[in-house]
Amino acid sequence: MSMSDDLKAIQEKVEAELKGVQTLEDLEKLRVAALGKKGSLTAIMHMMGKVPPEQRPEMGKLANMVRANVDNAIKQQKVALGKALLEKKIAAETADVTLPGRRLSRGTEHLISQIREEIEDIFCGLGYTVEDGPYVETTYYNFTALNAPEDHPSRSAKDTFYVVDNAPEGKESHVLGESDVLLRTQTSGVQVHVMEEKEPPIYMICPGTVFRPDTADANHLPQFTQVEGLVVDEGIAFGDLKGTLDYFCREIFGKDRATRYRPHFFPFTEPSCEVDVSCGVCHGEGCRFCKNTGWLEILGCGMVDPNVLNYVGIDSEKYSGFAFGIGVERVAALRYDLPDLRMLMTGDMRFLRQF
Ligand code: DAH
User: Fold this and answer.
1) Ligand 1: distance of its center to the CA of 188 in Å?
2) What is the pTM assigned to this prediction?
3) What is the CA(245)–ligand 1 centre distance, in A?
4) Domain 112-135+184-352 coded CATH 3.30.930.10
5) pLDDT by residue (tens digit) across 22-43?
6) Mutate to test the pocket of ligand 1, among 142, 224, 238, 268 (most ligand atoms within 8 A of CB)
7) What is the DSSP letter of 160?
8) Residue 4, Cα to own-chain centre: how many angstroms?
């Protein structure tokens, strides 16, 4: 066989084999087999020296042409193969944009936030401001300035989460250390902050989270929400407290509800009471919901103790006031007959979406 036959045979072989190549790796193998250092075409090129001189120009030309053809064919196949592979990949990965999307489930405002805002609206309508206060407090604001005696049981670590215990050496912990740092157990401390910052007349509420070392059960949560209220002005009397809180109760529970003021004790108010509203289930007759009393307790309140005014330097001869603390979870429970307060904390949308 002559060299020109060999060259043609190589070109035909490569062209035939190219048709069957499916991957870029196989294509590369084919290229090396023909054009690589030890490839079939390269070997023929090396033999060019043995060709009689008169045939050499023609043979050289033919060899170069075959080489260019083979090279070209491989390059074309490479482009075609790359395109086919890409198309295959795109086809496999395309998303059907006509499929319906996955619906995002929209949440609702949490029941406690709803009631908190409702309470804010009621008092804003009466001209009150809405204040804020720190969750992390010192013993001074949470207890002392609120007239709580040093041995008041609520100061103990059993009833208060302490963050830093600065009780002086030798003193009983949490009793005398005024710089003890704690998670506020009540929003009442905000009364002190506001009175330190503002001159009377003060008409304010403060909604916020409070913390107590209670194990969560049907009636207790270690973290819950209160709305504190404080009024300090000239000539404020118990009738103002009663008129305001009666109005509040009827706004939140309904016009037909009666209220009852039961004497109680709070260190920062004198006199103090707890307010009950008539049971909405039995209308005062007595039922399981109100434990047969006909009444449901909803808040604590009282006339601001002059000691508290004196602590912040407000003239208790000139000014008087009243204060109250509403438990927001309690309002929710009473309004919607919730059997277990923990339902408010679990984030179960089947429950929360009802409101
Ligand atoms: N801080 C009280 C508590 O957590 C609630 C309270 C009672 C607040 C009477 C008041 C008040 O402002 O006057 O139980």
Assistant:
1) 6
2) 0.71
3) 14
4) yes
5) 898 999 999 999 989 998 988 8
6) 268
7) S
8) 80
